[in-house]
Amino acid sequence: MQNKFAWISTPDELWDNKKEMITTALESGIDHVLDLDDCENIRKLGNVKIISNSEDADIFLVGINGEGDGFLELSEDFTDSVDIANARKAKSEGKTVCAYVIITDKAHEQLAVKLGSIADYVILVGTDWTIIPLENIIADLQKEDVNIIAAVRDVDGARVALETLEHGTDGVIFEANDFNNIKKIAQEVIEASQSKYELKIATVTNVKPLGSGDRVCVDTTDMMKPGEGMLIGSYSKSMFLVHSESLESEYVASRPFRVNAGPVQAYVMVPGNKTRYLSELVAGDEVLIVNTKGESRTAYVGRSKIERRPLILIEAEYEGQTIRTLLQNAETIRIVDENDEPLSVADVKAGDKVKVYIESSARHFGIAIDETIIEQ
């Protein structure tokens, strides 16, 4: 599942009131603002992307004139040909383009599809909104490289838009006029972006201490709870759930932001159902935190620490398939057993049941593909 996103449009209020709403949106993780009047002031609030019809906008807007009662309206001067011509002209000038279409009839629906083949983003606003036009447009644009954004008014509308036709829209936009609404919609978008991984129960078949190797600790900007960790393995399509260092130990203090992940060549699951080598991770990269139910959330790498440490090989089997990973040979390093309990590598033995993730597709450059690849 890809990451969903939220944008805001600014309310028609005095700057001081508008500023508070934009600041709340930024604090909630929303950093794209549609505004036609206060671009210069908005940029002073943080690292923000401005969607506007001005030439210095980060994302150039076609199809609106700024009039309306909460959502910006189509200008009466615009026609299909003018909208499309403006979008093409802006694209030819190297601009990132967003088209804004109010869906009132089939003709506007068709206009949205035409613009979707040109623009980078299409904002869809419904007057007498139903689910049907949104379904049609998503279906018609599924092969185009465009982000579809639904204008919504509340968290319920955001949920419907993000789930339509299973895939849903890529994002939502709403008027930032209520602090609680901003926070609720931002949280809904985060939850809609979460992938779920079906974890299997595999049987440990071999545990073998090895010599030293370069292993990676992944320190994230999130605090993990007991039961959370990362999917890590020697093979890109079969991984163990490696537990975070969120548990207290008589040997070291807990580090709930950390997963002592494995050697440099191991794979780790990242957003978008992709994998990365542990050695590639640097500050600012995204990784997936996964819990014992397979639920995931995105976190950022604060740092990746590589040190030489003794390693241990763990092998398991699931329905005839062998799964392997190497971990640091230390009591504080844990995988997860069939009862969702952390299991130290110091205690793991043949016959133990542990949680793993099995990918049906092979991977090429970290992306799942339909291809036969043998890893051993």
TrEMBL record:
It comes from the Archaea. Pfam families: DHQS, DHQS_2nd. The keyword Protein biosynthesis does not apply. One of its GO terms (biological process) is amino acid biosynthetic process. The keyword Amino-acid biosynthesis applies. Its EC number is 1.4.1.24. GO terms for molecular function: 3-dehydroquinate synthase activity; dehydroquinate synthase activity; NAD binding. Signal peptide: none annotated. Keywords: Amino-acid biosynthesis, Aromatic amino acid biosynthesis, Lyase, NAD, Oxidoreductase. Residues 202-376 form the 3-dehydroquinate synthase C-terminal domain. It catalyses: 2-amino-2,3,7-trideoxy-D-lyxo-hept-6-ulosonate + NAD(+) + H2O = 3-dehydroquinate + NH4(+) + NADH + H(+). Residues 3-187 form the 3-dehydroquinate synthase N-terminal domain. Belongs to the archaeal-type DHQ synthase family. Catalyzes the oxidative deamination and cyclization of 2-amino-3,7-dideoxy-D-threo-hept-6-ulosonic acid (ADH) to yield 3-dehydroquinate (DHQ), which is fed into the canonical shikimic pathway of aromatic amino acid biosynthesis. This is 3-dehydroquinate synthase.
